[in-house]
Amino acid sequence: xxxxxxxxxxxxxxxxxxxxxxxxxxxxxxxxxxxxxxxxxxxxxxxxxxxxxxxxxxxxxxxxxxxxxxxxxxxxxxxxxxxxxxxxxxxxxxxxxxxxxxxxxxxxxxxxxxxxxxxxxxxxxxxxxxxxxxxxxxxxxxxxxxxxxxxxxxxxxxxxxxxxxxxxxxxxxxxxxxxxxxxxxxxxxxxxxxxxxxxxxxxxxxxxxxxxxxxxxxxxxxxxxxxxxxxxxxxxxxxxxxxxxxxxxxxxxxxxxxxxxxxxx
Length: 265
Hints:
GO terms for molecular function: transferase activity, transferring alkyl or aryl (other than methyl) groups. By secondary structure, this protein is mostly helical.
């Protein structure tokens, strides 16, 4: 049976299977993301009224009670789906991410780790995705590259996210790197770290034994590095809107890397 006939046969044999699988994968992922994303606004309402006044809780569109309900429901559903999948490592990954997200935001003694730049960066780095395949990890060249490169990106995102929020952080006593060192210095540190990561990626491509991998890796990362530098030079560091826009651009570079990582050999 050729490939064109195979898929209709599979779909007719299990008509609900593809939809169920797609729904389960998306839901168990997005529910965890949703609950983590909602924890911070719930406990940082006063700060967000200064830094991000358009968010639902900060603007008054949602009441605190509604925020608590949303976080509770999505957290419970993400844990429930994680448990239903039957993978204890997955469940504990969800639980630990929830604990870190709570410790990052909640304003209690020894908590609200957002106030401490290094700890905040480690929290953001720790909740990057981890896949559990129930088999020993093989630290291949592409895996080592992807881990190192995405670690750089996570650190940059953790540092850069506070640059547009410097005004509110100062008012509420949050000693972020941007407050300590200034927006301009942290901005260029972040750009420098990303350019360093791209340089390592280019060197990684240059040492590849595969011609197509070498060409794609060098060309792809060279183009992204050039675009990053060009955009960084045009940012008005006195404009919160411009800095926020560049922060979102960094996220686009982050996701663009997922297209290049499979090409590394």
